[in-house]
Recover the amino acids of this structure.
């Protein structure tokens, strides 16, 4: 096997049912299926970014969720420059990821919808910078075509 090809982990067809005392209240989502790589839309259905990662913790604030002995929940949506790391491997530094509180998420469907405007989020700073510094300097770049 080539050292560049990593085998994919085997995902079971059916996940085991949680015991009653560990079943969380609310909707249970499969992160890979329902969340990761989904488009994030703001309250006006304007595309903001894509969902790249999740921050998961326990209700008591403990961030070490590797044991799996109690239910964990998503408390932040992470987005940022991860395309290069997906192509070449590795992880982006945590300081480069933009954190959107899960309390701002109002719906999870084909896209993840936020209850806030996208202009105020740090996730759109690249688009704002390009709009103001590059596109805005092109003749006709400051208004819609007629």
């Amino acid at each position: 096997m080539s050292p560049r090809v990593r085998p994919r982990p085997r995902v079971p067809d059916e996940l085991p049912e949680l015991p009653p005392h560990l079943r969380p209240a609310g909707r249970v989502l499969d992160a890979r299926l329902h969340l990761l790589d989904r488009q994030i839309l703001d309250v006006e259905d304007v595309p903001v970014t894509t969902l790249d990662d999740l921050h998961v913790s326990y209700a008591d604030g403990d961030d070490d969720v590797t044991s799996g002995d109690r239910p964990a929940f998503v408390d932040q949506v992470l987005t940022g420059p991860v395309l290069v790391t997906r192509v070449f491997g590795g992880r982006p530094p945590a300081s480069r990821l933009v954190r959107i509180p899960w309390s701002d998420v109002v719906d999870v469907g084909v896209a993840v919808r936020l209850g806030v405007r996208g202009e105020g989020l740090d996730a759109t700073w690249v688009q704002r910078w390009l709009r103001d510094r590059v596109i805005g300097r092109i003749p006709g770049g400051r208004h819609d075509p007629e």
In short: The chain has one domain: 26-137. The chain has three helices and seven strands. The CA atoms of residues 77 and 100 lie 5 Å apart.
